[in-house]
Design a protein that fits this description.
The chain is α/β, with parallel strands linked by helices. It has 3 domains: 7-226, TIM Barrel, CATH 3.20.20.70; 233-327 and 465-495, 3-Layer(aba) Sandwich (Rossmann fold); 338-457, Rossmann fold (3-Layer(aba) Sandwich). It is built from 18 helices and 20 strands. The strands form 3 sheets. An 8-stranded parallel beta sheet has the order 7-6-5-4-3-2-1-8. A 6-stranded mixed beta sheet has the order 10-9-11-13-14-12. Helix 10 (245-255) links the parallel strand 9 and strand 10. Helix 1 (16-26) packs across helix 2 (43-55) and helix 2 runs parallel beside helix 3. The radius of gyration is 26 Å and the shape is elongated. 51% of the residues are buried.
Length: 496
């Protein structure tokens, strides 16, 4: 067995002092650590760090890596110098060394035995542009040097391909499978559950696409505690990196001491995600742009209100893998607005006609508001207006109209495009502006409204309300509002 730890921290820095600092930080979370010597700027810095390590080697399983540029690393020296650095690392206290197939194939086995015989070898292959043509052939090549473990890292453009890679590791304990890329990021969190010896997590500097930081692996996702009994939840969207749903839901699970985890899934193709629900033991998931309407075609059942809205943001996975949809955006809208505005008989403009806009429109119409819709596509605006008994308004008319409230239900102005606004200052003729975007907490649109002394409501209120409603649907328990809200606000303000 490579290690008892589920997480291998990755220490990578340009200078030896920073490497030493990261190593000390890593030891607070795990006892299995990869030392990326190739990230050090010069041979002198490598030697300096290894002297520091040898002076007081920690009680930990240390893996030395000095990957050459030919194999996707940073080391510019010769293979001979690479092997000498690895040999020095073993003498300094490392137990394992990682030698990529490009270097191993050019070294006589006798030389490896003389220089590195006292260490345990991980033979590795890295595919940064996609999956290898034949995983079987790659495994055979890696095993040809007689290593004690092998590692295959490959860019995965789908969750399904990432699972194929991880299937290699399920059959043997001496295989490290590393799905790379943003799409495969959830599989890194679940890698140990899916068979890999462990998952890599950088202390500071990411060394491959789709890596999750050590702090998030341990603190946010508690990946070191995930077992086959852990219920997996997530959010699907494109993009999804901006989402604070993991902070919200995982805070709830942690507060209630539940064996559950919530993970973001970047989903370009909905069918790819649907194909991994069973293998990943997914019990429920949130749905965001652009899948809120298209998910309806894949449901086995749907709450009548969500069906009428025509958009779903919450899915429960029931027996036999059957999917049931709900819409809690509706709840979020009402909780965000009803205490600030007498909705009955108020005139409210909704900007947008997508999934969020539909939930807002139905919520406001049923609360008795007079609903107006303005959208980039006038046909969609008219369709939504008819569905809620409202009125479609063309954008040129906005400067001449007045509303009790304006609601932005588009993603315009969402992180990272924080300098954009869906409306001009002259079009903000209202008493209250509600932006459903929650990141940033204060959008460009809200700033324009505040300059005109218009009351503004952040999307964070709707986000927390709809999210806690989701949490309650999945768990059947009351959501711990205080720690969930605190976790979201802390993450939001830290990011900004």
């Amino acid at each position: 067995m490579l290690s008892k730890d589920k997480i291998c921290a990755v220490v990578a820095a340009r200078d030896s002092k920073s490497m030493a600092r990261q190593l000390a930080q890593a030891l607070l979370s795990t006892r299995t650590i990869e030392l990326r010597l190739d990230w050090l700027a010069t041979d002198h810095e490598i030697a300096r760090f290894l002297r520091h390590l040898a002076a007081k080697p920690p009680r930990a399983t240390l893996l030395a890596t000095c990957r050459r540029r030919e194999a996707g690393g940073n080391y510019r020296g010769t293979i001979a110098r690479q092997l000498l650095h690895l040999a020095e690392a073993l003498r300094a206290g490392c137990t394992w060394y990682d030698l990529e197939i490009e270097s191993a194939s050019k070294c006589p086995l006798e030389l490896l035995d003389v220089l590195l015989g006292e260490g345990r070898q991980i033979a590795s292959a890295h595919f940064f542009h996609g999956m290898p043509r034949s995983l079987t052939r790659t495994v055979r090549q890696l095993r040809s040097t007689g290593p004690e473990a092998i590692k295959i890292a490959a860019l995965c453009d789908s969750l399904a391909s990432g699972l194929r890679l991880l299937a290699l590791a399920r059959r043997r304990q001496d295989v490290i499978a590393v799905p790379m890329g943003e799409v495969a990021m959830p599989l890194r969190i679940l890698a140990h559950l899916l068979g890999s010896a462990f998952s890599y997590a950088p202390v500071e500097q990411p060394t491959a696409a789709g890596q999750v930081s050590l702090a998030e692996m341990i603190g946010l996702y508690r990946a070191d505690r995930i077992t086959r009994r852990t219920r997996v939840y997530g959010v699907i969207g494109d993009p999804v990196a901006h989402s604070l749903s993991p902070q919200l839901h995982n805070a709830g699970f942690h507060s209630r001491k539940m064996d559950a985890v919530y993970i973001p899934f970047l989903v370009h193709h909905l069918r790819d995600f649907l194909s991994v629900i069973a293998p990943l033991n997914i019990a429920g998931f949130s749905v965001t742009l652009p899948h809120k309407e298209t998910i309806l075609r894949h449901l086995h059942g749907c709450d009548p209100l969500a069906s009428a809205i025509g958009a779903v943001n919450t899915v429960v996975v029931r027996g036999g893998g059957k999917l049931y949809g709900y819409n809690t955006d509706y709840v979020g809208v009402l909780r965000a607005l009803e205490q600030r505005l007498p909705l009955r008989a108020s005139r409210v403009l909704i900007v947008g006609a997508g999934g969020v806009a539909r939930a807002v429109a139905f919520a406001l119409a049923q609360a008795g508001a007079s609903v107006c819709i303005c959208a980039r596509r006038n046909r969609r605006a008219e369709s939504l207006a008819r569905a809620v008994g409202g009125q479609a308004i063309a954008r040129p008319r906005l400067a001449h109209e007045f509303f009790d409230a304006i609601v932005n239900a588009t993603p315009v102005g969402m992180y990272p495009d924080v300098h954009r606004s869906p409306l001009e200052s002259s079009e903000l003729n209202c008493r209250l502006l509600f932006d459903t975007i929650y990141r940033p907490e204060r959008t460009k649109l809200m700033q324009l409204a505040a300059r005109r002394s218009i009351e503004v409501v952040s999307g964070i209120e709707m986000f927390i309300a709809q999210g806690t409603a989701q949490w309650e649907i999945w768990t059947g328990e009351r959501a711990p509002m205080v720690p969930m809200r605190r976790a979201v606000l802390r993450a939001l303000r830290k990011a900004e």
